[in-house]
Amino acid sequence: MTTLIFLLKAACGCALSAESRLQRFRPTRERRDFRAFSPLDKRRDFCPLLFRCPALILLLSLATGCVSRPPTVAHVHIGHALTGVHVTPEKKGYFVVAEERSQEVYQLASRAAASSNLGDIKTEIARVVVASNSDEEFGVKHALIMSSNHLSFAATSPDASMNLQQSAPSFAADIARVVERCELIALLGKDIAASDSSDEAKVLAHEIQALADANIKGDDGNKDGRVGSAPAEFGLLQLRSEIDGIVAREHPRYRTVDQWYLFNLVRLPNGRWVFDQLGRGGNIEGYK
After folding, report:
1. Which of 33, 160, 177, 288 is deepest in the core (most CB within 10 A)?
2. Which one, of 154, 130, 155, 156, lies nearest residue 143 by Cα?
3. Residue 266 pLDDT level (bands cut at 50, 70, 90)
4. What is the dihedral of CA 88, 211, 247, 171, to 10 degrees?
5. Crossing angle of the two packed helices 94-114 and 73-82, in degrees rounded to 10
6. Any residues with CB less than 8 A from the CB of 283 and at least 6 apart, and which?
7. Each residue's pLDDT tens digit, 81-128
8. What is the DSSP letter of 156?
């Protein structure tokens, strides 16, 4: 870039020198009323260097290649899943939130399973249910569904690649087992909340712990000796690999999306996605 700037300065210097020499020999009668200039004349008058120095035109075209273009709408939606969105805790991507919450669920469930005190078990499992299923707190289930929704938004964007169009429906189907485990955790949580036996609650807490672990690593439901070998066994580990594969296959190549674009993509009432130039962040109608 430094070399390019140096060359631009040199080219400008040469063109200015040539322009000054031409001015000495230009007849006064050739000067015309500015209002009569065509658009091209005006450009020539204001930018004589560009019209008299082809080398400068080439250098400027190279320089403009250094300016980044706005991301595609499809890639912004991918960014909402993987990088950030203004409505989540700490404005992290939906899938990242799901991963972090799944770790929290497992830690809470492990504490509950290790306790013999009914009150402590109930307290920890109540937190487990929130971290696993709450919409308001962006539990695992909600955050994962939202990440899948945004891949679907990406796939249905006018600028979506064939890769996204083909891959997003598969990803939406593959999250089903994690969602199902979250719902089982909620049901077991209700049983623990209603229990008056610490022994019973402890057994149920161990079941929740196993489900929480499977939501992270996957399971071996078909007993073939391989964890997560099929979508029905998937956890977030396998889903992360799947979504990373989708991104890796993107053409043009996916690049991490700048925060301004992530936070200012809005959907108009007619369904069209646009960037809010006022930078207000979020959907005009309540974007999630």
Report:
1. 177
2. 130
3. confident
4. -100
5. 20
6. 266, 267
7. 999 998 998 999 999 999 999 999 999 999 999 999 999 999 999 999
8. T
